[in-house]
Structure formats: structure tokens, C-alpha cells
Amino acid sequence: MPDNSCLTHLSCWKTGKQYDADRLINVSDAGKPLRVEYDLRGVAETLDRDILATRPRNLWAWRELLPLPFDIECPTLGEGGTPLLEAERLGRELGLRRLYVKDEAVNPTGSFKARGMAVAVAMAKYLGAPALAVPSAGNAGGALAAYAARVGLAAHIFMPQDVPAANRLECELAGAHVTLVDGLITDCAARVRAGCAEHGWFDLSTLKEPYRVEGKKTMGLEIARQLDWNLPDVIIYPTGGGTGLVGMHKAFAELEAIGWLDAQQAKRPRFVAVQAEGCCPIVSAFAAGADEAVEHENAHTVAAGLRVPKAIGDFIMLDILRSTNGTAIAVSDAEMIRAARELSAATGVCACPEGGACLAALRKLRDSGWVRDSDEVVLFNTGSGLKYAEAFAGGTT
Prior knowledge:
Elements: E1 7-12, E2 18-19, E3 34-38, H1 40-46, H2 49-53, E4 84-86, H3 88-94, E5 98-103, H4 113-126, E6 131-135, H5 139-151, E7 154-160, H6 165-173, E8 177-181, H7 185-199, E9 202-203, H8 212-216, H9 218-226, E10 234-238, H10 243-257, E11 270-276, H11 281-288, H12 314-323, E12 327-331, H13 333-347, H14 353-368, E13 376-381, H15 389-392
Parallel strand pairs: 5-13, 6-7, 6-9, 7-8, 10-11, 10-13, 11-12
Antiparallel strand pairs: 1-2, 1-3, 4-5
């Protein structure tokens, strides 16, 4: 990479093998995700909190910890800088010292997927990708379509036949080529692989390229900043492909490395991966003590973002859950829809089913005593409930 970037190289999450970061690349030789590595000593010398305070509170404020060279214009739509809202009434009801909601619904395209795609598309454009492709159960497709339009690249999006109408329309309005597939996101992924092989598209699938993680990790960077460089006790996160979980854990390690978190005093949050009962490969693998997950057969849930039967980064997620003394928990569709309505009514956040899943999980963890009354908890609302009209109209109340 050029000198005007703190990015040094890529490494395989599984084997550690290093790769140059100056070319388009998807996964390692082992077929595993690639991790973006930085000169963190250089970051510590060039970035400080006073400089950060002068920048707009968006994703690109963290430029030294992002891969795009400093002299390349950021193709922004205003992503990042989302609020961390204290949920006082819900916190009191649940008997918690402090409860927060990180509301990603206010991102461009209405979900947290904007963060990952902003960085991934920017890097794909910079590295010379001719066209982009992704399988999507909903929000990732909309985000890709928007940022591809922003940089002037064609986007090919493959979605399950039953994808919510709002997600499909969002892609089409941005000029993407949308193909509906009779099957799950895994079937869509197969179509993407075939199209990339035939037409030379670049695959931006979850954790099958290095840079979506880098956009998603800014959620963790923001939480630390919003809590005055302290970290919460528990982070509850809806987990499909798991990019956000992986990214936030990476963010906290990088903040510690540049000296912004005290290695002795700063606690690591206990991560909670929340999945749907109808699609819970990580929950099953965690309970079984396995290092990797088995594909969940006949996956089904109204939460499109959780309908991921098999994730390429499963081994990374499972390691994070165990190393942070976290856990994995599944909730039913009925529970998540009820909780989404409750979360919206109690906070004003327009909660999606995945956000509802986090609140439903929190209730179970409070009942079991896993979450203590002294814990400071952050749960995520990853997208706008307005995109899920079919799910909320489905009668699971």
C-alpha cells in the first residue's frame, strides 16, 4: 500500500499467513477470511483524541484505522456516528445499572450494513474492481447498491425469492441488477460465485473480502468514544454472518494497542451472539463446544439478517465468545417481534426484528442471572423496522 496509509498487509485469520494489500483479493489460500493489519505504532504517533475531536462524528473520522489511503476521497453517504441511547425505562424495568441501545437504523440505507459496504466498496473501487456482486437477505444488498451507485460501479445482487419488498426496491432504485433466487442466502451465494467466475465481478460477500469488517468495527470504536473511553460489561449483538461481532472485537484490541484503553484496567465486554431458533448454527456450536458450526438445515426466520445457515467466520465468532466469557442464545420469531415492538415503544427507536431479538435475549439472560444487575449493557438495533412490514404483519405478536 502507499505511504499515505497505515495499512501494512493482510493476514489469514486461521493460519496467520501474510498477503499484500495492494490487489483485489477475497480469501486466503486456506479459504478463510483475511484480517486487515495496521502500523498501530504509527497510528498512535499520528492520531490522538484532540485530533479526533475536530473531525465530524462519522465513520471516516477514524481514517488512520481504516484502509483507504488518505489522499483518496471517501465515497460517503454520511454513514456512522450513530447514537448510543440510554434506555432508562427499560433499564429500570430489567433492574440494570445502565442499559444502552446503539441505533444503527439511522445509517444511510437504514441499517448497519452501510458501514461495511462504505469501506468495502471504496477499497474495491480503489483497487480496480470492474463490477461488484453480493448475496443478500436484505440490507447488505441495499447498502451495496447505494455505495456502488455512489462510486459508479455496477452491482449484481442475488436475493432469496421471499426477500422483503422494501429491500428489493431499495436495490432496484439504486440501479443494481437484482436476481431473485428460489432458496436461501447460501443458494444466492452459489449464484454469485458462478457469476464472478464467468463475468469477473468482485465478490463482496460477508467475510469473503477483507474490508467490510473494517467498516463494521467502527461501531466498537464509537461505543468506546461515547462511553468516555470505557467499555460496557456486555454487548448483545444479533448474529448472522457475524462481521460486526468480529469487527468490534478487533476495534477494542486496536484501541488498546494505540494506548487509548488501559490494558490493566479496561475490561473486555462479554459478547452475546443472538440468533433465531429457526437458524442458530453459532448457538448450537457454542453449546456443543465446537470450534466450527454445522450448517443449519431448513433455516427459517422473519429476521432476514439472521437467516445465515453457515458463516465462513464461524470459528472467529466462537473464539470471541469464549475468550470474552460471552455466550450465544437463540430466541423465537414471536419473541423477537414482541420485543421489537416493546423496544420501539419504550425508546422511540424504530426497531427491526434483529433489534427485538437482542432485547428478548437480554430478558432471558437476566432471568438466568447471566446478566447481573450491576452490568452496563449495550444492545444493538441493526436496522429500521420500516423495512420489515411483512414480518410485523405476520401475526407473531
